[in-house]
Amino acid sequence: MRRRRLLALGLFTATAGAAAVMRPAPLRTQARAALARWRPAPVLDPTAPTGVPTDAELDTLRALAALLLPSTAGPAADALVRRYVIDQAARVPGMLREYRRAVRLLDTSGAHDQPFAARAADAQRATLRALFPPYAHDSWGDRLRARLFTSRETRATRVFVVNDLLAMYFRSEPGWATVGYSHFPGVPAVDPLDYTRAPAGQPT
Hints:
- This protein is an all-alpha fold.
- The protein folds into 2 domains: 1-40, no CATH class; 45-171, no CATH class.
- The chain is 61% helix and 0% strand.
- Helix 1 (2-22) crosses helix 2 and helix 3 (55-68) crosses helix 8.
- The radius of gyration is 21 Å and the shape is globular.
């Protein structure tokens, strides 16, 4: 498996380099296009069944969200995550499968006999760091390595579960309150500046 990945990386590098020589477009653009063709981003399966996650699966996803969301989120965010996951799994084809894949990935990652939700917080964080190593936002090399050497399950968990839960929360009323807004879209404000005013103590 390691030899196969090294060969694939060499082939990809050579292809991207040749494309950059033949065309005037920047190397990064050529490399990104070649990578997208070779390892396309994960997509939802529109034929996968919908349904309801089990209580154990919900426990794992709620434990994941508790690490991802701000510590000030509290019980309201936990209930929000539960409702959101149940709704997505029942309404969007493919999401129930991705949630279950994510749960399986989290529960089986790391040297633990316990499911993810039952582990201590430090052990949960260690599992996430191992699955999703941090990289500099502007580091093309780090993003390339992450794209090449992570499994489809890990990439899909990041896209469909981690990123999605974060986006959902920060689009919600508790998420807006976290960053200092007293109103969020759909709730009228007497003072329109309430939608754009910086939290107290921060410069505008």
